[in-house]
Amino acid sequence: MASTVMATKPIALAKASPSLSPRKISIRAQAKPSSTSIPNLKSLTSKLLFSVPSIAMLAATPLPALAEMEKAGLFDFNLTLPIIAIEFLLLMVALDKLYFSPLGAFMDARDAKIRAELSEVKDTSAEVKELEEKAVAVMRAARAEIAAALSKMKKEMTAELEVKLAEEQARIELELAAAIDNLEKEKEEALRVLDAQIDALSEEIVRKVLPTT
Amino acid sequence: MDVISSSIKTYNIWFEISGVEVGQHLYWQIGGLQIHAQVLITSWVVIAILLVSVIIAVRNPQTIPTDGQNLFEYILEFIRDLSKTQIGDEYGPWIPFIGTMFLFIFVSNWSGALLPWKIIELPHGELAAPTNDINTTVALALLTSVAYFYAGLSKKGLSYFEIYIKPTPILLPINILEDFTKPLSLSFRLFGNILADELVVVVLVSLVPLVIPIPVMLLGLFTSGIQALIFATLAAAYIGESMEGHH
């Protein structure tokens, strides 16, 4: 393809520097009429498109030992193909041993460990709930116990107190009765004494009042 | 005429630097066969980059990953997700293949765009991305073909060939044709994208000052990354398709 393009412009090549290889494809902005450069690019691409099947067929035919290496083009199949295939397979084995397997195993182990720890945490949270409920139940039982004990003690205390109260009351009543008796006795004594004195007084008064006869 | 020769002479410098040599290869000879040496050299560089970066990043994996380890974990997750989506549950054994495909093509394309290969001057031809050569892309496509045949045959045995007459036997010639068009399209898609991107960038650089082609170069980076992804995804899709369970 390059040869057909360059063959149309031999004069330009002759004028160009001798270091230019005739196969270099490049668009050079020249002082030449630009109309020739653009159709050349178009014809180049169209030639590429249409020559692909023909060149593929050309490449498919076994090329003899080429005296002219320039004949090679885009579709030059040779020993490079199997060599690249072998290199790729060796690279695949090497990467598998160095990267995919070790790192993959490491990542999977890490995932499994994290998952195990997560499930453990979930289990212990259930345990914690159980323990909490137990604690609440125990508290409730303890409170009930305390209340029962308290009420029992109260009852006992009031019973005792009532007994004591009754005793004291009885004692006080006794003493009161005794005191009242005493007072009564003294009253009677006093009355008797007064009576005797009244008698004596009344005798005196009579004697004093009545003339002495 | 002097005007023309002088203008041509001044443009020579740019021409020397920016001329692209399509179809020019550096040839080595092994036995009676030839090799495109520039492809080999650049592919060795790509392989070296991949292996060295992997070795450095994956030493001593930490539970909380460092930056490099994090990047490679992300890449591995990405490849695993890609394989799982396309292949299904039995994606495990295929991760090295798909992963290497993706990484090799991605690093090749980006090395072709980013590394200054022009500094190293070859006696004939020039260094560029290894995927701009038809041999590389066809090699990768043929490996993919072999891979999906191997997948189908190892899973189903000879009843793999019943796929060709599903859903109706009328589609048999089309199914057979697919076996040829799949590797063809894979290889040409990658080859065309990479080579054309290189050509466009070089042509632009030779035409206009240095800043203008940068958007095109960025577009080239983007599309070459996408091409790596597409190649790997399609490879995985073909493998998954051939391993598909019994309906």
From TrEMBL, chain A:
Record's InterPro entries? Answer: ATP_synth_b (IPR034679), ATP_synth_b/b'su_bac/chlpt (IPR002146), ATP_synthase_B_chain (IPR050059)
Report the subcellular localization.
Membrane
Q: Which GO terms describe its biological process?
A: proton motive force-driven ATP synthesis
The membrane topology term of the UniProt record is: Single-pass membrane protein
What GO cellular component is one of the record's annotations?
Answer: proton-transporting ATP synthase complex
Coiled-coil annotated spans? 114-141, 169-204
UniProt entry keywords in alphabetical sequence: CF(0), Coiled coil, Hydrogen ion transport, Ion transport, Membrane, Transmembrane, Transmembrane helix, Transport
One GO MF term: proton-transporting ATPase activity, rotational mechanism
- Functional summary from the UniProt entry: F(1)F(0) ATP synthase produces ATP from ADP in the presence of a proton or sodium gradient. F-type ATPases consist of two structural domains, F(1) containing the extramembraneous catalytic core and F(0) containing the membrane proton channel, linked together by a central stalk and a peripheral stalk. During catalysis, ATP synthesis in the catalytic domain of F(1) is coupled via a rotary mechanism of the central stalk subunits to proton translocation.
Its family remark reads: Belongs to the ATPase B chain family.
Protein name, entry field: ATP synthase subunit b
Automatic annotation (TrEMBL), chain B:
| The UniProt record lists the keyword Transport | yes
The transmembrane residues are 35-58, 94-114, 134-153, 190-212, 218-239
- SUPFAM superfamilies attached to this UniProt entry: F1F0 ATP synthase subunit A
Q: How does it sit in the membrane?
A: Multi-pass membrane protein
Q: Which UniProt keywords apply?
A: ATP synthesis, CF(0), Hydrogen ion transport, Ion transport, Membrane, Transmembrane, Transmembrane helix, Transport
Single biological process term from Gene Ontology = proton motive force-driven ATP synthesis
Q: Where is the signal peptide?
A: none
**What compartments host this protein?**
Membrane; Plastid
A GO MF term: proton transmembrane transporter activity
What would be one Gene Ontology cellular-component term for the protein?
A: proton-transporting ATP synthase complex
Q: Which CDD domains match?
A: ATP-synt_Fo_a_6
Query: According to its UniProt record, which protein family does this protein belong to?
Result: Belongs to the ATPase A chain family.
> Per its UniProt record, what HAMAP family does this chain match?
ATP_synth_a_bact (MF_01393)
Q: What is this protein called?
A: ATP synthase subunit a, chloroplastic
